[in-house]
Amino acid sequence: MKVREGFVESHSHRLAYLAVNEHFASDDQPAIIFIHGVLASVNFWRDCVPASFREQRAWYALSLPAHHPSTVSENFASENLDEQWFYDITHGAISALLGSRKAIVIGHSTGGFCALNLAIRRAPNVIGIVSIAGFHSGNWGGVEGLLVKLAAAGSWARSLFAFNIWLAKKSAFVQRLFASLLAYDRQTYLASPLSQKMIDNIRANVRSQDSSALFYLFRGINRLEIAEQLNDISIPCHLLAGTHDPVVPAEQPLLLAGAIKRVKTVVFQNVGHMPFMEATEVCMAAIEGAVNDIASQYSRYSIEADAQLEGVR
To answer: I need a surface site. Which of 50, 74, 130, 138 has the fewest CB within 10 A?
Structure first.
């Protein structure tokens, strides 16, 4: 796996990216972009992708804003954070990275929200999305939900929020414990080689996270709600969700599946927020299948469009 690291600018935010296996890239194939969830980093994806992506496919990983090594704008504040802000930052970064090239966006958790949000607002270069444990509302459960509620409580809770971030930064054990609480099947999660690889890959970034920037980001996440806009999604959408996600309540993926027109859903039984480790084989197969399905639909559409154009001529 050949990895090039870099940064793109978007609305005064500097977002990190990984460009992987660029020697396999082809202009006639859509690019593949992975976006991680909160409290992880762009390096989350170094091992949490299907085997074929590690050695045989070109892809990118793009950072969420406010996550090291990315940096925020000077005037970054929670008051500016809403669905349009997320779209502007994410779409701006993708355009800076790819230009006008078409892309399939795959997101986990908040990355899944970003993918859905791009589809709702019809980002011109996004042809399909895959949401893994994504959400339509920032009303979460579990330990991450507690952090959202802390941030939403106001400035008095800022030091308590920062203390929790500091704990994860200070101790590898606490970081691993915190991540395991996102799973439903914690035994399987902890036994998975991927869980330790993921922790190792993001550890340096986690230790350098800016707790102030994360506080503002979490305050903004608390206000996110795109449920009423989901029927605006017109591109192919694949939803991957666990039945026992402690972060994203079960009613959220159910609403997503019912509201989106061109949706295909894979449900992981007895799995929580970390299907990469809790159900590795079926999760990786679902990701690969979703990408291939979207790319195939795009290819057929392109052939039909070319044939129609040729007929006009």
So the answer is: 74
